[in-house]
Write a structure and sequence with these properties.
The protein is mainly beta. The protein has one domain. The protein is 4% helix and 44% strand. The protein has a five-stranded mixed beta sheet, with no helix packed on it. The chain is globular.
Length: 504
Amino acid sequence: MSDSRPPIFDDGGGLPDVDHSRRRTDPGGPGSAGKTVWDSDDDDWHGPNYLARRAIVVALVVAVIAVAAVLVGRIIGSDDSGSGSGFGNADWNNVVTVDNNSGTVVVTNAQGEETNRFRFGLSSLADTEVIGGTLISVDADALAVLPLDAEAEITIADDVTTVEIASTGTLLRPSGSAQTVVAQNTSSERLVMVHGPTGEVIDTLTTDPVPGARYDLANARTEPDGRHVLVTDTGNFQSVLFSFDRNGPSFFPGLALAVNNDIVVTAVNVGTNANVAVFDHAGEPGVSARTSSVRAGMISSDRVILVGIDGDVLGLALSDGGITELGRLSIGTVEFGDVATRGDRLVVVGELGTALIDADGTIVTELPGARPTTSGVDELAPRRTTCLTVERETAGELAVIKFETGKVEAEALASPDLLGAVDGCQPIIPTSAGYLSLTAEEVGPVTLTGDVIAISPDSGTIGVEQSNRLKLVPRATAQPADDADVVEPVDVGRSGRQIFFAEL
């Protein structure tokens, strides 16, 4: 295959008008038979109904001022929430605090004992992430990648990889994984990608700079491990595959639709129709088909699941390119879709609601009037392994949806600004009176004082800012018994720093 890039394609007057705004509209028609449906006309989300208790629960939060405490051994928590390859391990044994002003990093163990302290060369940090044992940070002029160590001496010269880039100041993740972050320069012509578990770096300026590139990270796709990143280049009407397992990029006609370890899927939308094509990673073409205009896609074992702008769910056979009609969504005009980090659920957002589709193309559930929350790690796409959190803004409602079944695990009257663990099933939500803990077992006020600023990947521990100190407290929704063993929260340093949990 030649290295030459494909010609500019006819997109019928522009790329699809994909709206990632938080605009809501009233829900529309009924859900399809046999699907789990969140009925917008009922207070029941077809799951546990806690709404009758909400006024009581929120009122109780006001009176909750005691500090939760248990034995230090419980602070770490268990790995009951599980983990997934698309996010990372839920285990942790160290706390990493980062001073954004000075670039100072402090590592403490679960008992609050400082084991390492260093600066890594950047200051006035704009954004920082810890993935696995790798710290990635960016300021206005550079990106730094640092393998963390609980005790070993770390020096800038020997351990820190620094890439000079006039960045937007934000680390974003392509849809489909939480393992890889991307920094973009202010002109959108250049990307620097970091694979968190390994610390590997791809800089598009050095791999194969593309004249006139305009990389759209809202239309970037990857697989659960985050090793292959497919990005739409709107400046050249093409998609570009960057892989940590190959020496250089590959180029494809059309919009980035889906990618896995073996193939790439793109779509060229022409008017109300689309040409959907499958390629291998080197760019060699496979099957293709003509469908209605496509807004979302997911690769399964023997087919590509496609969702059209009108809600048609189609299957593109990888064997012969045949198209099978699998269903039709009733969430209005489809805006976009994201593959969950578990790799086998497609989250589709329309103007009238959200739907979940499995790897067979079966509609698992439809949620009228709901949209996925976008706080924290979920900024561009859902990043959790087991549950999806959605909000219905007009009603001020928030619900936790099980990916496997589409059922409601928990619900609350609360804002969408939440902190979630790896599994996504047990968020902590701020209210005007304190914090709520949402789990399948209970919804109740979190017993603590101070401001919650972090939650551990296993959800069992909370990082709080309290009396100008950073402290770890166990997640608790009840006061300890009078005869219970009580210890002080674990102090991990002064306030004014970010808290990250890591397994080192």
